[in-house]
Each structure stands twice: as C-alpha cells, then as structure tokens.
Amino acid sequence: MATSEKDNEKNNEKEQDMIEDYITGNIIPNVGAEEVRQCVEKFLVEEKGYAKKDIAVDADIHIEIDGQPYDSQLDLVVSADGKEFMVVKCAAGSLESRQREVVSAARILIAGPLPRAVVTDSRTAVIYDSVSGKKISQGLAAVPSLSEATEILSGFHPPEYSEAKRKKDKIVFRSYDSMNVNIQRNV
Which CATH number fits the domain 17-182, given the four candidates 3.40.50.620, 3.90.1570.30, 2.60.120.260, 3.40.1190.10? Predict the structure, then answer.
C-alpha cells in the first residue's frame, strides 16, 4: 500500500528536531539559524541586561509596496524603556552580506528608523547605525547593553524619513527577505 502525502508530512514533522525557545518557552523547529538565535536570546538577557519582555521573537512586520501587502517576521526586535531600539538578524555565514536587509528592516518597522541594526552568528556581530546604514562597530562586546540602549534612545531623534526613501527600503527588505530559506515560517 502506498504512503499518502499526508502521512509523509506527519512523518517529516515527527522527525524534525524541536527545541524550546529561550524567550517565549514555545516549542519550535530547529531549522536554519535557530540555534544561533537561541544563543543570541540568552546572550541579550544574561550578558546585556535585557529582560525577556524586551525582546520580541519573530516580530511581525507588515509593509505595503504599490498597494501590494508583504508580511514577514524579524528574528528579534529589542526594546529599551518600552521603545523599539534594534533589529537583530541571526544568520550563519557572511554577516556583512545581511547589512542591507537588517538596516532596511530597522528603518521600516515603525514610522521612523530605529537607532541600531545588528547581524550576528552568535560568535561575533556587526552593528549598524540604522539612519546612516554605516557599520559602527563589530564583535559581541559591541552589541549595546540595556543601559547603553537607554542612553542612546534618550538622545535619539530620528530624522525626517521621506516616503520615497521608505519605499526604497521596503523594496530592499522584501527582496532580501523573500530569499530567506530554512526559517521557521517557511517550514
């Protein structure tokens, strides 16, 4: 007797490695850079002083480009004093190749750019100023702590962000994000 497609899907689900998310406690598939994200979540809480409630996991992002909706999720969005502070992209491989994706995400998540965008593989990190898009530091030690984030936010006044620039960043984000594979939302 032939195995049905539905039975094959059930077998694949059973065989898939599952882990508990450090922040949410949810049981999730261990696919793609999930182990990286788990290390980063723990690092942000235990080393950088953020509370679990300060870190949004798989933060929803909804954009519209020329009337066409695009929905996705960002690996981590970190807040300080109740304000979004940085987008964190967890990735394996070349971190700097993710610059445009993470900086664009940090610029379009809310009405104005967030102060920081970070790409990390849990062993090192590249930190970007979201307004200029320039790399400002590198290494895990350079990831802003909660107290540093609070200080940065106190003096942060995002510049005017034109709709033309916002549209360009939406297109850049969608282009890079749509190429992501082996992530939970695609499983």
Answer: 3.90.1570.30
